[in-house]
Amino acid sequence: MCTEELNDVIKRIDGYEENIISSKYDEYEKFFMHFPIIVAAPIDFSFPVFRVRPVEDNVDESSPSSFSYKPQKLIPAMSRLNLKGESVFYGSIYPQTAIKERGIKPNKEFYMSKWIINKRDLTLYRLFNHEELTSNEKASTIINYVDSVRNDDTTKLLSLISEKLTSTINEANKYNFTALYASYVRRNRIFYKLKDEEGNKRNVSIDGFLYKSIKSDNPNELNIALFPDIIDNWGILDSVYKCSVNESFDIITGYKGVYDGTEIKWNNSKFHYRLERP
To answer: Which of 98, 65, 102, 69 has its CA nearest to residue 86?
Structure first.
């Protein structure tokens, strides 16, 4: 598939109203089969993921599910990497990123949960941004390899996909394309002989997506989107904070709850906690 063809596909998909985009899946599945995929080198160690939600009435503060992904029965709204009705766990590698992604203002109360992901060989579809594709030595090496083998516009194709995902332009239906494509990956998670960031060829089952935050210029501020079974089987809720953040976005103040395996137990003592910077 060339970039002109992909641009035409994106334009058509973006032209649909959100309420009918799910019904268009079968029409575009054959296009998605030809898209280039590069996965992050397998993550074989436990790591934290932070997730933020606003403080609202009727939140069950003792239940881990209150701070996890929205279940299908509650009909999740369409977002960057899911169609309406598809559950996805969205989080960030750093707490500041999670706070900024939700548009939290200083001194406004919110919940921030810390999850530990302990799946061995976690495999994430790596969405490089355009700068990484053209200037990052590791990314460029992999792209050049794929280009030489497949003789296609891999760099441009991946740039288009990433640009749609990380667009800051406020326009109607701007996530139609990425949500529909992510649904394809969700339904066809096993891929054979993919290249990873380290240049290794592997057979993989994709567990989710890794992509740059649009709320920061720091390349280390990455977001993660995981399919629900990864959280159900390998996600451990470590703690929840009911807090506010200062003007510098480096100190949170509030209350901490710790999950004891049955429910979240809250400490009534107020705390101040300095956040790790990316």
So the answer is: 69
